[in-house]
Specification:
2 domains, repeat, 4-stranded parallel beta sheet, 6-stranded parallel beta sheet, Leucine-rich repeat, LRR (right-handed beta-alpha superhelix), alpha/beta, signal, Leu-rich_rpt
Length: about 325
């Protein structure tokens, strides 16, 4: 039995009634707008799990038995081909180019008679189920352009009949399992991930990550911490030994340093004294504001109008006189 509804505008979820089609050998729902998760009940599709089903039909007409081979166009391994005499041996499931979400159900690994499984171009997440490695007759497996993470299961080394394989553009990490088949594919089958090991040129670190990713991650974090500590230590050494230490251990430097401070202090004193003298000449006694207690108050300056600047200057003079005393 073949059910092909590809390249339509179907939306919504995959109906669970499909799981009742025990004789279904080829299911193609690709290039639609189907949402939701892949039904776990796909494990009930007996024709995809057992070898006792085929698509050959015999008719008894007038005592003569006629064996009829049906033919169909199937899209497998990225191309459309017509299958007739071997149609009964071909089992496939194509759910690509939809908007399926959630994880790949591990129950799909029960369909050990599947020759082709295409789940590419969806929004699937999570790890690739180990159970897919039990589908040892698989010839074409495409899980590309999803959001899968984790590692490629080691059980994939059991897929000895693979001649089309693609897991590109996911978030897969770790080493590609070692097997004759997985190492025979081109690099583009693995691109867009964080994988390492043959057939890729990226070597794996001890953590199973590409060496460039592992080194960049550790070195970037380590460099930030190391340079922080180094800058603190260097700053302390430069400050202490460049400025403080000579004043303690070299008497001539210490005396020169204090003489310089005294010289600068005297210059500042003369400078402010000169300013104070100029202010005294500028400000007359008539601009001095007195509060009710007879003491000068800056609040009184705001009542003097045009003379407020002179009033404030007078206050500065008094403060400087206090410093001189």
């Amino acid at each position: 039995m073949i059910l092909s509804l590809r390249s339509n505008n179907f939306d919504g979820q995959i109906p669970h009634k499909i799981c009742d089609l025990q004789y279904l050998q080829n299911l193609d729902l690709s290039r639609n707008n189907i949402l939701g998760a892949i039904p776990k009940c796909f494990s009930n599709l007996s024709a995809m799990a057992n070898r006792s089903y085929d698509n050959n039909y015999s008719y008894d007409w007038g005592g003569t038995t006629t064996l009829i081979y049906l033919s169909a166009l199937l899209v497998l391994k990225g191309g459309e081909d017509e299958y007739s005499s071997i149609l009964g041996l071909v089992t496939s499931m194509d759910l690509s180019a939809n908007s399926l979400t959630g994880e790949i159900p591990k129950e799909i690994g029960i369909l050990v008679e599947l020759r082709s499984l295409n789940l590419s171009g969806n929004l699937l997440i999570g790890n690739i189920p180990d159970e897919i490695g039990n589908m040892e007759l698989m010839e074409s497996l495409d899980l590309s352009m999803n959001q899968l993470n984790g590692e490629i299961p080691p059980s994939f080394s059991n897929l000895n009949f693979l001649n089309h394989f693609n897991v590109s553009y996911n978030n897969l990490t770790g080493q590609i399992p070692t097997s004759t088949q997985l190492q025979s594919f081109e690099n583009f089958s693995y691109m867009g991930n964080y994988l390492c090991g043959p057939p890729l040129t990226k070597n794996c670190s001890t953590k199973g990550l590409p060496t460039d990713v592992a080194n960049n991650g550790s070195s970037s974090e380590g460099s930030k911490v190391n340079w922080l500590y180094v800058s603190i230590v260097l700053g302390f050494i430069m400050g202490f030994w460049g400025v403080v230490a000579p004043l303690f251990f070299i008497r001539s430097w210490r005396h020169a340093y204090y003489r310089k401070l005294d010289h600068v202090g005297r210059k500042l004193y003369v400078y402010w004294a000169t300013i104070a003298d100029k202010c005294r000449k500028l400000v007359g006694e008539e601009t001095v504001a007195l509060s009710q207690t007879g003491q000068f108050s800056l609040w009184d300056c705001f009542d003097m109008g045009a003379d407020s600047i002179a009033c404030a200057a007078k206050e500065v003079v008094k403060l400087l006189d206090g410093l001189q005393e």
